[in-house]
Amino acid sequence: MGCPLLLLLALLTAVTKAKVFSRCELARLLQEEGLNGYGGYSLANWLCMAFYESTFNTAAQSIKVDGSADYGIFQISSQQWCTDDHSPSDNRCRMACRDLLSSNITDDIICAKRIVRNPQGMDAWEGWAMHCKGRDSSEWVEGCDL
Question: How far is Cα 102 from Cα 88, in angstroms, rounded to an integer?
Fold first, then answer.
């Protein structure tokens, strides 16, 4: 009886396995995925934003007062960009919010690229606007051997 339960738990863990990236590990991945310069924002800006949104944690979730939530390493909003079971959504990235919580951040990056193409740009992320905008962010890529 215990064996099927353990198998089920192992499968669920594998499917939903999250990851906390190191700064340089995330820098390399974001560079490989073409974010350096994307939308006019440096790789350092993307790293700064991800740190202040999620501390590089792919499993990060934040529930907002209005009932919507932010998901994943970039804290993508269920109100506009992805769909969950808790709040209405425009679902502009055409994806389930739960898909933003895994260690594979390819879908997060695709959605973030869509978000930054909007007129608001990176100002869509409060963490970036408050902590990174207009500041020298070069320290975020220092020592990463890119």
Answer: 22
pLDDT for the residue numbered 16: 56
Helix axes 43-54, 23-32, angle to 10 degrees: 130
Look up residue 29 and give its amino acid.
L
pLDDT at 92 over 60: yes
Q: Check: pTM over 0.70? Answer yes or no.
A: yes
Burial of 105 (0-12, 13-18, 19+ CB in 10 A): buried
One-letter amino acid for residue 37 of the chain: G
pLDDT of residue 7: 40
Cα Dmax for the chain? 59
* Helix (H/G/I), strand (E/B), else coil: 143: coil
Q: How far apart are CA 22 and CA 24, in angstroms?
A: 6
Residues annotated as catalytic (active site), given as ranges = 53, 70
